[in-house]
UniProtKB/TrEMBL annotation:
Superkingdom of this protein's organism: Bacteria
SUPFAM superfamilies, sorted: ALDH-like
Enzyme class: oxidoreductase
Presence of keyword Cell membrane: no
A GO molecular-function descriptor: methylmalonate-semialdehyde dehydrogenase (acylating, NAD) activity
Keywords: NAD, Oxidoreductase
Species whose genome carries this gene: Halobacteroides halobius (strain ATCC 35273 / DSM 5150 / MD-1)
E.C. number(s) listed in UniProt: 1.2.1.27
Residue ranges annotated for the Aldehyde dehydrogenase domain, each copy included: 13-479
Record protein name field: methylmalonate-semialdehyde dehydrogenase (CoA acylating)
């Protein structure tokens, strides 16, 4: 019997009263592994009310005590490392190595959030005038929520949840309906860690749940990760409702290779950026920009020889480097965009469109695809693909590469491969991207740095992770005092 998932409200697992469910499908086997409830407005409002009622008790809990719960949660994640990693593979499709890396990053966010007691301090100033002192206090605000995507079901919620509760707020998680199981396990571990009832709640659902959260007067702020069109809508709606918002949008990332790059050392790093997680991550490479004819020829030869050897399959099988797309619809969309680019003149260097994975013939698989030619102006170069497609582009100069990157509407990540400090510094200084990689294929910030983003890749002022997220979840109160 297929499991119907439950919400977690006020410390209890509660079945939804809805009659609407979304099937949870393993994208490699295409077998149904569960059903996600499209929770009702009433159920969302119950979660909000619970979080609101739990706030003052949690807010008055000393930060060092809150941190102790996070240390317990850290230990529980470590104990359930394999269980979480395998859940990510089952519902998301990425290979086990990538899933383990994701769980590790979620764990690291808990570790950093446990240091909140030393990071959340305000500041004092004596004698701003004769006999008058002034101080700033950072205080929690109330109930926050996150609306998160399918591609990192363990990591992305933990960009937010540990920091929000460490700073004294209460929380509601709204996971993607496509990948609810990882969130369920995380919620079980939060409960096992002893975090008081109502401090963290989990509500499944779709657009109606998100809208209810955004429109509630009792929600102080929202964290969102998803496509740029939806990120814009969420940010606009949150602003209209007077809420804080940090909304991570889409990406179209460029990797530039200079003539002095050490390609032999870099090749596996480059290929992983494009094809690990089947390209379904916001820091994935999309466009490989070769500076100069010789660099282009070397990259072309390397790609043709080695990319077809990337092992595609079910993420739990030994040696698999790339899994399936999340849904059949996603696969169809990417195939359609590849066909459109070919019709517009793109040349196919590597063609993985017709790949068949033995034993998983119905899976949502596309093998690696590499396009080249006079493609500088094609949509497939300038719009987010979110799939295993590499566009190999030749330019003549560093400046031409820089201008191509900066002409793009997105600004999530940009990378350069070079042995020159000059080119590395110019790239970091002049390129419009929030996360810059120097000889790094996926420039993912560690948790004590903010996860940045520019232009159409981010809407808001304070990013996830790092000190940014502490400021996002707290309000500064200024106290000016004199005793007579």
């Amino acid at each position: 019997m297929v499991e119907e998932l439950k919400n977690h409200i006020n410390g209890e697992w509660v079945s939804s009263s809805t009659d609407q469910y979304v099937d949870v499908i393993n994208p490699a086997t295409t077998k149904m592994i569960g059903k996600t409830p499209m929770s009702t407005t009433k159920e969302v409002e119950e979660a909000i009310q619970t979080a609101k009622e739990s706030f003052w008790e949690w807010r008055s809990t000393p930060p060092v005590e809150r941190a102790r719960y996070l240390f317990k949660l850290q230990n529980l994640i470590e104990e359930n490392y394999d269980r979480l990693s395998e859940a990510v593979v089952e519902e998301n499709g990425k290979n086990i190595k990538s899933a383990r890396a994701e769980v590790q990053r979620a764990l690291e966010n808990v570790e950093v959030a446990a240091g909140i007691p030393s990071l959340v301090q305000g500041y004092n100033s004596e004698d701003i005038a004769r006999g008058i002192d002034e101080k700033a206090i950072k205080q929690p605000m109330g109930v926050f929520t996150c609306i998160v995507p399918f591609n990192f079901p363990a990591m992305i919620p933990f960009w937010f949840v540990p920091y929000a509760i460490a700073t004294g707020n209460t929380y509601i998680i709204k996971p993607s309906e496509k990948v609810p199981y990882t969130a369920q396990i995380l919620m079980e571990l939060i409960e096992e860690a002893g975090i008081p009832e109502g401090v963290v709640n989990l509500v499944h659902g779709g657009k109606e749940v998100s809208t209810t959260l955004l429109e509630s007067d009792d929600i102080e702020g929202v964290s969102f990760v998803g496509s740029t069109p939806v990120a814009k809508k969420v940010y606009t709606k949150a602003a209209m409702e007077g809420k804080r918002a940090q909304c991570q949008g889409g990406a179209c990332n460029f990797i530039t290779v200079m003539p002095d790059a050490n390609l032999e050392a870099a090749k596996s790093n480059i290929f992983s950026s494009f094809f690990a997680c089947a390209g379904q991550r916001c820091l994935a490479g999309q466009n490989l920009v070769a500076v100069g004819d010789e660099t282009y020829d070397q990259l072309k030869e390397m790609v043709v020889e080695q990319v077809p050897n990337i092992k595609v399959g079910y993420g739990l099988d030994e040696g698999v480097e790339m899994g399936p797309l999340i849904t059949a619809k996603a696969k169809e969309s990417i195939l359609s965009r590849i066909d459109e680019a070919i019709d517009q003149g793109a040349k196919v260097l590597v063609d993985g469109r017709d790949i068949e994975v033995e034993g998983y013939e119905d899976g949502h698989f596309i093998g690696p695809v590499v396009l080249t030619g006079d493609i500088h102006d094609l949509d497939i170069v300038h719009e987010e693909i979110f799939g295993p497609v590499m566009n190999l582009i030749k330019v003549d100069t560093f400046e031409e590469a820089r201008d191509l990157i900066n002409s793009n509407n997105y600004g999530n990540a940009a990378n350069i491969y070079t042995q020159s400090g000059k080119w590395a510094r110019k790239f970091a200084y002049e390129v419009e991207g929030g996360n810059i990689g120097i000889n790094i294929g996926v420039p993912a910030p560690v948790p004590h740095f903010p996860f940045s983003g520019m232009k159409d890749s981010f809407f808001g002022d304070l990013h996830a992770q790092g000190r940014d997220v502490i400021d996002f979840y707290t309000e500064k109160k200024i106290v000016i005092e004199r005793y007579l």
